[in-house]
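User: I'm preparing a small set of examples for a lab meeting where we compare how different chains pack in three dimensions. I only have the primary sequence for this one, and I'd like the structure in token form so I can line it up with the others. Please keep the answer compact; I'll paste it straight into my notes.
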Amino acid sequence: MTGARVGTRGVHHLALNTTDMARTIDFYIDVVGLKLVHAMRVPPGVGVGPGNRGNPPWENLRHYFLDMGNDSLLAFFELPADEVGEADRNARGAMQHLSLVVTPGRAEAVMGALAARGIGFLGPVDIGAGTRSIYVIDPNNIRLELSWQPADGDTPGVRAAWAQGRAEILAELRDLDPGRDWSATIAHLAE
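Assistant: Understood. Below is the structure token output for the 191-residue chain.
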């Protein structure tokens, strides 16, 4: 893949689980500021029938989609509360947290909405690369991070802020596996 372009345009949708759809969409709409763009029930046969393509193993689940910006969606499946347990975000294969990019103005609005509702959050904290973040636990016990680059104002440049040079990345990769030739992995990087 040397010299190849990035293989994706980004996230189509990220599907998470909830046991309380109303509370979840209230949080993501009223507090975070996302917009609901699609509300459906999973069609018959897709949960446990032959048409299952990796969906949760229940029929007739609510499956709602929120616009998280830049042509990407955040989706939730509403699972039966009496049939599922709690996830451990620090387990292998789990999602540790979700970070959404926001503008400084949106960050202020979210912090105000959280405070008005008595919802605690951590931050804002500097996390590096000119980025600040706040952290909050959503109604599903998902750790949500909202990140912004104050210097970018209303036009955040996440990749530009976080892109490292070849030498910095190579130093870390050599620490990961000193005996490996990493040149093909970082061939796309400028000197």
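A couple of notes for your slides: The chain has a mean pLDDT of 92. Residues 5 and 18 are 36 Å apart (CA to CA).

User: Perfect, thanks.
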